[in-house]
Amino acid sequence: MGILDSLALGFETAFTPVNLLFCLIGVTLGTAVGVLPGIGPTATMALLLPITFGFDPATSLIMLAGIYYGAQYGGSTTAILINLPGESSAAVTAIDGHQMAKQGRAGKALATAALGSFFAGSVATLLVALLATPLSRLALDFGPAELASLILLGLIASITLASGSTLKALAMIVLGLLLGTVGQDIGSGTPRFTFGQRELFDGLDFVSLAVGLFGVAEILRNLEGSMVRSVVVKKVQDLWLTREDFRRIRMPVLRGTALGSALGVLPGAGHVLASFISYSTEKRAAKDPQEFGRGAIQGVAGPESANNAAAQTSFIPLLTLGLPANAVMALLIGALLIQGIVPGPNVINEEPGLFWGLIVSFWIGNLFLVLLNLPLIGLWVKMLAIPYRWLFPAIIGFAAIGTFSINLNAFDVYAIAFFAVLGYGLIKLGCEPAPLLLGFVLGPLLEEYVRRALTISQGDATVFVTRPLSLTLLVLAVVAFVVAVLPTVRRKREVVFVEEDDGSRPPQPAQAGTGDGAARR
Amino acid sequence: MKLQDARKDLLAGAVFTGFGLAFAVTASTYDIGTALRMGPGFFPLVLGAILVLLGISIAVKGFVAGEGGDLGTVPWRSLVLLIAAILFFGATVRDLGLVPALFVSVLLAALAGRGVRVVPAVVIAASLTALSVLIFVVALQLRLSLVGPWLGG
Amino acid sequence: MPRGPRYDIARPRRSRSVIGLAAATLTLAACGGGGGGGEDAAASYPDGDITFVVPFSAGGPTDTVTRLIAEPMSAELGQPVVVQNVEGAGGTIAAGQVASAEPDGYTVLMHHIGMSTAPSLYSDLPYAPLEDFKTVGLVTEVPMTIVARNDLEPTTLEELVAYVQENQDTVTIANAGIGAASQLCGLLFQQATDTTLTEVAYEGTGPALTDLVGGQVDIMCDQTTNTTGQIQSGEIKGYAVTTPERVESLPDLPTTEEAGLPDLQVGVWHGLYVPTETPDAIVEELTAALQVALTDQNVIDQLAELGATPVPEEDATPEAHTEQLSSQIDLWQPIIEEAGVSAD
């Protein structure tokens, strides 16, 4: 069957009224749960799984998939508006997106996220349609050694997430890596740093970390000052992007889409790495890197595109090989099994309608999402007008319920408190939270992959350099490290104080008139 | 006055060193293994040691440069109330049920605001609790009991 | 934002209305508190939502089996059955929660072979499988398959055994983590072939299978639920199934007995459990519903797709399953101990 015939079949399947309707339901629901802190796409899909039993398999998958990529759109909304990333990838969006919101540019940030996501989602969908099989073969070449090298590259890139002291950023990454080791060791089963609490065996929950470190810590910062509310005292400027804005986001969106599409295919961390590496790339590529961390529109455009492209291409291993790249994909396998379809390479031949219908529905879903999200921007921006004394207790309440509901585990709620205190304290001491978050997400994977690579090679450490792909990634990591550290070194030679000065700045230094500016000389 | 000024970096260094030590010491009680055959303790032990070094470097650099800046105000009252709100929810949601646990938590959180008085805080807490039940229980159909066993629910 | 109308469409078919569901939740809460009331409660049972707690993630094999039987059981009991995933610590979190839940029949645990291995793996388990639970019955037994990356030389199980014995030092065997069925089967395989292989642990079956398909690891033993699609399409090599009978969906695979490794007999059984204080009358109700569900044609067909079959009626009883559970605990204890595996 040629690609055109296949696509025709896909359109035929996806364009039935029922499938269009459930695609719309899926993406709308996804947006909603993405916006609510805590409860994410996985929990929602699990909740809705039973009702899909009665559906046609294609309808069921179209809706469930819609929830997943819809949540990627919604997740960036809370990240931008209240500095509360619902997913690891949205944490990057929060860095500059929330600064933009504070400067009255929330509308622009949201529009950038929506447009970038739409472009990336559409391109990535096309890639899935045209290149799914070769890409999945390529992904299989990534063994533990390659993945370990890739993660090292990502960690080094994350140094640039911080606009302040490199030393502190490094320390935050390492602290994140360490916090990520809490829980049962995969290889030996030894529970680490769990204080005998069985609830901690599966580690600290990412949502708790994000809510505490970003959301609650931000609330505390806002309650510091004399100002009544943090989020935007400034008047909200126009919601739409100017010609100049379009010019600035063009390349970031393109690069983000490329990065996201490529990394999304990889198992495990691809999706997270995509947005972090995109941010780091944009910061390097920008003419005004100092702008990053203070509301750079490129810092929203790149990662958002990367994140959405990756969300789309992460379906590739599932669709072509029946292998799940992450927890959400594993859930979709369950949905297929319940429908009596055994996921695997045969699905494309045995159920072409399902396969191509789903792919076409991605594109339709992305269209729905952009049509849904652009008009909503006005509404979201109005939400910022809610008095802060109402807004922040709501954030606390929603976050607590959402976090608890994932596993009905009280420890996940306690962890919010722990991370709030830790995050707020560290922010006060001039350390920025984003590198810690990346370390936390990637740490367990780094350890897992390194140890697995060594186990498989029977303890031969040369695997990391004798495998060409791994070697290439390691070389890139070294280059990235040099690039990240060099300017610091050079700058120090020139102006001794600059670096230290940077380090003393709180991470969100942009808002004028909050007193933070005084710390800068 | 150097020490005074560098306070922030010294503190940051101390925090990192403390965490690094805590992790490294605990990790050393696990099976360490070797670099090529890592046990569960290896990775955290090495990282803990690195964190200690980084912490010391930050402190030393801060001390030498003497450029710490001011810590600024810490809203202690708000901090305590917010943390209490979160902990209370976690500790009681199962036994008190969603409605009472959430109401008290949101009330505590609302009181963390500057110059918020009790009556408006109660209004905020009651409305937000109702809204949450609507969103999470009615709309999203989460399986949380509204009133728990402690209240005979 | 979520609004009413959309949920009218997306709502579970069983529930009557949004209000009804909210009311049902309230009822559930009410039952939760007043439960354990002995005969009175048993007589009116069931009159509210019943929660099936699954100790693993949504979409996994155990979850799939649970959801398959939940529907016909719900129809039989006349009340909604809600599946809730409580992940953590190899399923011991969920089991611990159910062990201390109200013994009123509204909280039911679905667990698999891990129910019998947890006491050997965890030194301070907060519950005892036999003492703290009543069994409702066995549900199904999912066969396991011995598989390998598709460029591994051996083509038959016999050759594979010779191969691993020859290359003990380099052969790697993947598993989905401590206490996972794939690890248990891997232990049995090593015992049966008298080898010590390099075990490579993964966090779940998905990544393990990915590396097997990618040729990063050599062999694995996992449930048909996970491997059937890959074996059928030739992404991985299948050598044998570990059950006495061949599997319908993989007719070419010999049983381990046929292929000369009769000691390797293992299946991932699934069972239903309630807290030990639950009145017998309620357990009987649940057992009866389970037995009906297992004769449901849809359940039989779907399980067949997964390479599994429902257990015969005489095994889906509390007595039979209690006996099986106790013998399984005794079977695994020495194997796990000898292999030096521990989860804490």
Automatic annotation (TrEMBL), chain A:
Full protein name: TctA family transporter
Organism: Geodermatophilus pulveris
Residue stretches making up the DUF112 domain: 20-438
Keywords: Membrane, Transmembrane, Transmembrane helix
Record flagged with keyword tRNA processing: no
Superkingdom as given in the UniProt entry: Bacteria
Sequence intervals crossing the membrane: 20-39, 45-69, 109-131, 151-179, 258-279, 318-342, 354-381, 388-405, 411-427, 470-489
Leader sequence residues: none
Residue segments, region Disordered: 500-521
UniProtKB/TrEMBL annotation, chain B:
Residues that span the membrane, as ranges: 42-64, 99-116, 123-144
Lineage: superkingdom: Bacteria
Protein keywords: Membrane, Transmembrane, Transmembrane helix
Pfam families, sorted: TctB (PF07331)
Keyword Membrane: yes
Extent of the signal sequence: none
Keyword Translocase listed: no
Location of the DUF1468 domain: 11-144
Protein name: Tripartite tricarboxylate transporter TctB family protein
Automatic annotation (TrEMBL), chain C:
Source taxon at top rank: Bacteria
Keywords linked to the UniProt accession: Receptor, Signal
InterPro entries in the cross-refs: BUG, Bug_dom1
Signal peptide: 1-29
Keyword Signal: yes
One Pfam family here: TctC
Keyword Signal assigned: yes
SUPFAM superfamilies given in the database record: Periplasmic binding protein-like II
Family: Belongs to the UPF0065 (bug) family.
Protein name from the UniProt record: Tripartite-type tricarboxylate transporter, receptor component TctC
Organism: Geodermatophilus pulveris
